[in-house]
Write a structure and sequence with these properties.
370 residues, 21 helices
Amino acid sequence: MSKTPAGHRMPTELLLEVAKWMDDRTLSRLSCTCKGFRDEFRDQLRERAIAYAMPTLDPQSWVDMIVPAIRKLHNPGDDITAIVCSFFSDIISDQLSEDLEDELEAFMPRQPLYDAICHSQYDTVERLLRVGGVDVANGRNYYNEPMLHIAVELGHVEAVRLLLEHGADPNVEDDEQVRRALDIKPPRQPRAAIYRLLLDSGAIPNSLLCFGIHVLDLKGGACLLLDAFESAGGTGLDEPGWWEIFSSAITGKYRNFLEEILDLRPDLVQLSSEDPVEQKVTLFDEAVKIARFQIAALLVRKGAPLQDAPPDYYFCDDKMRRIHVPYREVWKALFTRAPEELLDALLERPELRDYEFKDAIRERASVMHT
């Protein structure tokens, strides 16, 4: 409680007029030391904080900035006509020529929040967000990119956390590519932590397929994908392209992802696709076709379906016995010269527990490998 008599205090209107002439640092210091000033001008201080953290450019600012930049690119004697000025005054951020961006950067006022995020100055990020709140957290740079997207793309986990804690919209979209934060692929090391923060804040990707591709090489990637799928429930978003995701995982040898997701969703091992030549193509077929035999063995152990073989799937052993191979998968493993690991996984399946010619098949395989 101030001991200064009310009649001796500076009138509110005069305080406000004085505040208009203070720079941001002086105003901030005064508001920190003078509780009465801070309480009296809470809204005005917040507006100043927002304007300081995330300054914007009006059309006239673009003219004042762009024309000197154009002049710098031309000879001093070149005529920058009023028509050119008018044309550039209508330019918006997503239409800026890439050739001009570097020149324009030098003319743009700095955006302290953007700079702090880019340079990992998290104390500054937190101070600006604490004062500016949700308006600053949802701010954009001069190219209309959300601050959250910038932090995600840079892989700055702490900046992402601070922005979300202070009210950044986890599903905000940029104007140029119509991306959400979960559609962006951060650097690999912080990617899982960033995706977890976003998912826990209610983020949903625009494309579950693309998100699935982005998590294939991550520890816990299957959990992230299934959480995103669950979060998207009821939003009308298409189900992930499971076949494309599994095909990419097989091609890229992402065994850990496959093992994890099949533990969580064992039904997905039944996935298949239609092929004009082979008709039904299973995950096992896909793996064997590109010689991913270890992954094929994993799929067999996880319960990949075995398809009955036709009568002509047989060979003759050294005793001239006709040995019928009961399943297409066993036939493929045998005649593609797959490693023993795959053949062992197949012959251990319950469907082949009582098959009497296991030894004959193993002997045939050993002959083919010599």
